[in-house]
Design a protein that fits this description.
156 residues, alpha/beta, Rossmann fold, six-stranded parallel sheet, 4 helices, 24% strand
């Protein structure tokens, strides 16, 4: 059984919806158990119990929120050898992939034992408070399915 955790922060619910949809996609893959945890409820000491750690943030001025950045820094203090990871963001306007790329870079620097299995996902929202733009949610489910499928292949 592949165990995954999706840790996210969301101000208006858009990033939460994206995270929920990613978890839904992951749980469609037999032998995968993905769970969703809001950042404030994430127990850093339990991260080692998971095979995959996904981190999601709204794009805040071209980067992840300060709280998510601190969480990634703290992940670096753990032994994450042989663990897999991925990141995602929600963005408005021209900030496509900016926060996701910065989170990937930060994970590579701070938590080098965590191997990123896919490029980050960037999901467009229609305004500051949303909603998630039309046609974006299926990408989230596909992202989850892809990660879970890759994890199952590595497990085999």
């Amino acid at each position: 059984m592949v165990k995954a955790i999706v840790v996210y922060e969301s101000k208006y619910g858009n990033t939460k919806l994206v995270a929920e949809t990613i978890v839904e996609g992951m749980n469609q893959v037999p032998g995968t158990k993905a769970m969703l945890v809001e950042l404030n409820d994430a127990d850093l000491n339990k991260m080692g119990d998971f095979d995959a750690i996904l981190v999601g943030s709204p794009n805040h001025m071209g980067r992840a929120t300060r709280s998510i950045a601190k969480f990634i820094d703290r992940l670096g203090k753990l032994n994450l050898e042989k663990k897999r990871g991925a990141v995602f963001d929600t963005y408005l306007g021209g900030d496509f992939e900016k926060a996701a790329k910065k989170m990937e870079k930060q994970l590579r620097e701070k938590a080098p034992g965590l191997t990123l299995v896919v490029p980050g996902l960037s999901i467009r929202v229609g305004g500051m408070k949303g909603p998630v733009a039309d046609g974006e949610l299926p990408k989230c489910k596909e992202f989850g399915v892809k990660i879970a499928t890759l994890m199952k292949e590595k497990e085999a």
